[in-house]
Amino acid sequence: MTQQTSTGIVHLIDRTPAVTGTEMLASLVPPPQFEDATFESYRADPSYPSQEEAKAKLQRFAGQGEPPKRGGFFRRARKETPAKPGVYLDGGFGVGKTHLLASVYHALPARRKYFGSFIEYTALVGALGYKNTVDLLRGADLLCIDEFELDDPGDTMVMTRLLGELVTSGTKLAATSNTPPNALGEGRFAAQDFLREIHAMSDSFQTLRIDGVDYRQRAIDGHAVVLDDASYTHAVDAASTTGTASDDEFSAVIRHLAQVHPSRYLRLIDGLDLIGLRDVRVLTDQSEALRFVAFVDRAYDAQIPIAATGIGLDAVFADEMLAGGYRKKYLRAVSRLNALTHSLPTA
Q: Partner of 34 at 20 to 30 A CA spacing, among 58, 71, 289, 302?
């Protein structure tokens, strides 16, 4: 049965958003849940001293905090390493890297500064062309890149070249990427992977390692919430009475994502208070899975709860995918899906 949009229920598959390059540039700001992020509001876990250490170093990078202590009158001053124009936050899921990145954005006094995910910057290049993107961003005081992707050589090369041109014009850089949780050996090489992939820019970055436990998993169990049909209908109807909820069959959404450029996914979910996905199934096609990851990232940035039936969204990616080259992306998406399904309003 087709729902009427007048009831506050819409269908993602009916939306075909368009977005201009100018709008994309204007949208390069921290996502809603980090629009007020500060160093003071960052909750460092005392069990992991690297979190407080990274915070202090980033405060200095942003022009705040105490400078490193110098030698006394009778002591030779310790020679300081020249400050690098870029910082790279290396750590697992949910240790607060994006919060700290947003804190840098808010703290640095700058006339022109931008904050976006890796895919948003590459989408900007795709929409405007490389030269036009460089011309628009040149002269910016700060560029924050969240979730720097290391698995697409072409995109990585474009971003490395772009960052190189911006640094020569005085732009500061701050970037993050994710390592898998609970993978001690694998996670330790993330910084080396990053520096190797952006070898032309590696000398411009200072690496800050942040250890810790995924904060999204501290208060919830490790599984996404699955609703029965009655609970799902209640959740969608309740959200639609005071706002706007989407209601779609999962496979139909997956097919629709193939028709919408990832740079437009944020517009696809614009104005929603809840995303409803019926009959979730396991994704076995790599392209479908990667598009869904990009969709989840946008939903998480906008902090939109997800109501779902079928299999748990924490099991949406096939086992062979979790063991493949895009493992990091899929694990990040699972972490975010867990959080969004647990953020459903209680009746």
A: 289
In DSSP terms, 209 is beta-bridged to 90
CA distances from 192 to 58, 187, 300 (A): 20, 10, 28
Q: What is the DSSP letter of 346?
A: P
Q: pLDDT for 178-220, tens place per residue?
A: 554 333 334 444 566 666 667 777 788 898 988 887 555 444 4
Q: Which residues of 91-118 are buried (b: 16+ CB within 10 A; e: fewer)?
A: bbbbbbbbbbbbbbbbbbeeeebbbbbb
**pLDDT tens per residue across span 252-309:** 999 999 999 887 888 899 999 999 999 999 999 999 999 999 999 899 988 999 999 9
Contact 233, 69 (CB under 8 A): no
Determine the Cα–Cα distance for residues 27 and 268; give it in Å rounded to an integer.
Answer: 14
